[in-house]
Structures are given as structure tokens and as C-alpha cells.
Amino acid sequence: MQQLLSALTYLHSQNISHRDIKPENFMLARKGDPTCVKMIDFGLSKDFSGQETMKTMSGSPYYIAPEVFLQNYNSKIDIWSLGVVLYIMLSGKVPFPGNSELEIIGNVIKGDFHFNHEPFSRHSPQAKEFLQCLIKKEVNQRFTAQEAYNHPWI
Fold this sequence. Notes:
The chain is an alpha+beta fold. It has helices at 2-13, 66-69, 77-91, 101-110, 125-134, 145-149; strands at 16-17, 26-30, 33-39, 46-47. The strands form two sheets. Strands 1-4 form a two-stranded antiparallel ribbon. α3 (77-91) runs antiparallel to α5 (125-134). 31% of the residues are buried.
């Protein structure tokens, strides 16, 4: 997570949003060595220099931030998506489940998630607080990549 946040901090400092953060877009630098993770697939990334917000729909339903559906968003969508990835890593579950793409999208837009899954009983309050700062529906209250990178849990 630290390496991925470092990558996002750099991207965002260069006014680039990845816009498709999901587990499939990470890979190990060397086979069998989990100590060096790389972010890949910049096909949906966007240079947002000179723009307050972006409007194009992009991403995968489980990982898309709610504001993307309103077609008015900024680079903090990457933080939301990384938060979803971390939630899955810590629990083995998605925070916004659904039986159809429409139901998943509805749950993402609501933005309500919980820590009731058994694996979360083994994780620290600090890890849960960190997750809540990443998967925050209110964009202006959501962490930036730099804030997330500097969080004590990281």
C-alpha cells in the first residue's frame, strides 16, 4: 500500500489521475517477490492540468468513486479506488456488493460500508480509521494521496 500511495502521490503531483485503480492493475516487479509492487495500465489515465474536474466515465464498478457517476470528479477518485482495494485485501469482501452491476453502482453511490466481516476483528482501529479516510463519500473530506501516504498506519 505504501508503494502504491507513493506512485499515486507522484502521479497526482504531475496532474495525472490513473482512473482505473483495481487489483488487476498492480503487478510484482519480480516473480515471487512481493516486496516491489508496480502500478500498471495507464490506458484510462488523464492529464487534468488546467482542469478543476474531469467528466468522462471510466473505471470498474466495484472500484469507481460515487462522484464519477455524476461526471464531475477529480484525482481523489484514485484514493477511493485504492481504499476499495485495501478493504478487499483486509477482508476478502467488497465494500459495496451487489447481485448486478446496477445494484453495485447503487451501493457505491450510497457510500455506506461496514467492518462487520470477521476478518476486520483482527485489524487495528487505526487500519479501519485509515480505510474510512480513503473511502469517504464527501470528496473534500477524503484523503489526498500525500495525506494517505503520511498516515501513521502506513
